[in-house]
Description:
Blueprint: E1 9-11, E2 16-20, E3 23-26, E4 31-34, E5 47-49, H1 54-65, E6 78-80, E7 87-91, H2 99-105, E8 108-113, E9 117-122
Antiparallel strand pairs: 1-4, 2-3, 4-5, 6-7, 7-9, 8-9
Amino acid sequence: MEPGFTNFQPVRRGELLAQDRTGAIKASETGLILMPLYQKLGNDGFFLVREVKRFWLKLSALLRKLKVGHYVHLLPGVRRDPVNENFLIINTRIARILPLQVFHLLGFRRLRWTDKYLVVSRRSYDFVRPTKFVF
């Protein structure tokens, strides 16, 4: 890491953050830098994060409380993975309007993105992430 960075410090896209064996590491976007608590112990790394407006957090909480995520597999272009029911496969040619953002609001995380499909799941500790998806 370059010296002088503090946790949650604003950084701009293109700003030099660190060096590794391949050269300079620059911020891929404007945001805040988040460094792990153990950062001072070594050269561990960082994350870039964005602020989330309170409106979106409250909307997400409401949608989750209403359990809307339990019914999204009924929407056009959305289906459960036949191998693992914890995963949803979204055909982004059908479900085109901000699919990743909509599923983030419902508590899903992106696992894989292809030309045509977005695969998402909820964070769960009772299953192992498969290495192969069935489309």
